[in-house]
Amino acid sequence: MAKACALHILVKTKEQADKLKLQLQKGADFGKLAKQHSLCPSGKKGGDLGEFRKGQMVKPFDDAVFKGPVLEILGPVKTQFGFHLIKTLYRN
């Protein structure tokens, strides 16, 4: 079964996600932004979701993590929870 490890930042609006993505592209620290802005409890850990298996996350999030490039900022990815910026650290 495929596994991955990812960081994410969850916000309410696409506009907020776009602004944060710009900051990340300019070199901002992902963990610091997650702690400041993420609505997910994982924000306290810098957005770290730890390791999880394919199918454990909602489909749009799962697709981004398991199909998108590793170590790049993906998103905004819309789910029922809001808009995510995702950084897949590894997958196997």
From TrEMBL:
It is found in: Cytoplasm. Its EC number is 5.2.1.8. It comes from the Bacteria. The keyword Cytoplasm applies. Belongs to the PpiC/parvulin rotamase family. GO terms for molecular function: isomerase activity. It catalyses: [protein]-peptidylproline (omega=180) = [protein]-peptidylproline (omega=0). PPIases accelerate the folding of proteins. It prefers amino acid residues with hydrophobic side chains like leucine and phenylalanine in the P1 position of the peptides substrates. SUPFAM superfamilies: FKBP-like (SSF54534). Keywords: Cytoplasm, Isomerase, Rotamase. It is an enzyme of class 5 (isomerase). This is Peptidyl-prolyl cis-trans isomerase C. Residues 1-90 form the PpiC domain. InterPro entries: PPIase_dom_sf, PPIase_PpiC, PPIase_PpiC_CS, PpiC/parvulin_rotamase.
